[in-house]
Amino acid sequence: QNIETASRLADIENVKAINHVLGLIFGIIAAAALIGCIASLVGAFLANIDRKRKSLAVLRLLGFGSPAVAGYVVQQAVLLSAVGYLGGLAFYFAGAQLFDQLLGGAQATGSFVCRITVWHGLAALLLSLLVAALVAVIGAIRAISIQPAESLREL
After folding, report:
1. Distances, alpha carbon 46 to alpha carbons 13, 14, 73, 86, 94, in Å
2. Is the Cβ–Cβ distance between 41 and 135 less than 8 Å?
3. Model-level pTM?
């Protein structure tokens, strides 16, 4: 029937290769951001404990044991991380709405450009809380070492 065909296999392979490289680059950026987040949280929580050293010593002087003080520190870190997560989620929804309006019209399918599934959101929440709790344990160990007499020395 003399029907001419043209293969775009090379173009498809190029797009797949670019997709793989971009996925790798974004993965490296995400890993670096996670390491930076953990380092930042460690510094912030340790600075918070140093700032509240006198208050933690007073708590110990009032009879709160080491587990109670450590629990207070971890609970505070987890609560702050949950509030930060909710703030980030609000910024995501605002940005997603903007991107969907700006870039959604260019798509023939009319689908969303930005989308987080419920499972991805829950996984991000659990990961955020887990990282905050693990980092706060480092600060809790430092808080446990505060002696109750330190509050009396500074009076």
Report:
1. 49, 48, 10, 23, 32
2. yes
3. 0.71
